[in-house]
Write a structure and sequence with these properties.
The chain is built from five helices and six strands, in the order H-H-E-E-H-H-E-E-E-E-H. It is of the alpha+beta class. It has two domains: 1-33, no CATH class; 35-137, Alpha-D-Glucose-1,6-Bisphosphate, Chain A, domain 4, CATH 3.30.530.20.
């Protein structure tokens, strides 16, 4: 109705709808159409190519993300990765963004989680993992 009757752009129509559903208790925080989602991000003092390589190279990834049940489905060099979290079938989308010649950011969206409790667990998991990743490239002096 927002889009059709009031010509509200699609993105804003969706935002208003989600806000309404949350306010009325019809949708929980972090809940999406396909389940729940946990997000995390970190800025690291390295070039985006090296940050991407830390995810893409299985040996390098094992240094900071050991035993994570991840299977890479698709990747675009230096830009993004799509993975399956094989313990439960959720999915992990990872984006890489240059913030300068020696600074970059990684952003994670772990979707299709089954509950708000799973969101809390995965947020904690990804926060710890990204701290280890950052420490690998920015050791504390």
């Amino acid at each position: 109705m927002l889009s059709r009757k009031f010509e509200v752009p699609d993105w804003w129509s969706q935002m208003v709808t989600v806000g309404y559903e949350q306010a009325r208790g019809l949708r929980l925080v972090n809940q999406k159409a396909g389940g729940f989602a946990a997000n995390a991000s970190r800025t690291v003092g390295i070039a985006v190519k090296h940050l991407y390589d830390a995810w893409n190279d299985p040996k390098m990834r094992a240094r900071w993300l050991p035993d994570a049940p991840l299977e890479v489905r698709r990747s675009t060099d230096g830009k993004s990765m799509r993975m399956t979290w094989t313990a439960g079938g959720s999915h992990v989308d990872v984006g890489f963004f240059a913030k300068g010649p020696h600074k970059s950011m990684v952003q994670i969206d772990h979707g299709k989680l089954k509950s708000a409790a799973a969101v809390a667990r995965q947020k904690a998991f990804w926060s710890d993992a990204l701290d280890r990743l950052k420490a690998l490239f920015e050791p504390v002096s």
